[in-house]
Amino acid sequence: MYRHQRLITSGKSFLLATLLFGMLAPKMAYASESADSRSAIWLSDGQRSAILAEMRQFLTASQTILQAALAEDMAEVEQSARAVGLQQARGVPAELRAKLPEGFVKLGPQVHIGFEEIADEAVTMGDSQVILQRLAEVQKLCIQCHAVYRLERE
Ligand code: HEC
Fold first, then answer.
1. For 39-153, CATH number?
2. From which residue to which does the signal peptide run (predicted)?
């Protein structure tokens, strides 16, 4: 009888433990995933929005270039790559530039140069394999920077 009781009790605590674990485990996993070791860059609301808008342009350009290269549409490759090329890099205001860490300032222009080279390839040899290769290289820079920095509001 006593043994039987114990079995029921331990059955109940097992059930309770399972329930609790089920409720807590996702939170624990979430907590460890959200531990963010990237360096924060502190910006005004406007500066942060401007950089994020540029980022979305990068993603749009990358997708358009990929699709246009596959379709051998070199005019489209050139146009979308040029839009995020060196011209865009020159537009960064001095007070924003001053807040950006050195690593960020180094990687940014490399991306613009990479896109500029894609645009040049499109109007010269127009080899889609070369364009895809360059795009793959540019995207390594995206990944490199994203691994290190995050943007925060001041
Ligand atoms: C010099 C550093 C750097 C480079 C290079 C870079 N990014 Fe970013 N990107 C960032 C940072 C920092 C954020 C904000 C991340 C955060 O705060 O969590 C970001 C955010 C983004 C976002 C989110 C935009 C939004 O509206 O929230 C996209 C999309 C993006 N990047 C695409 C790209 C692509 C595509 C490339 C390469 C062609 C690229 N980025 C290159 C630093 C960079």
1. 1.20.120
2. 1-31
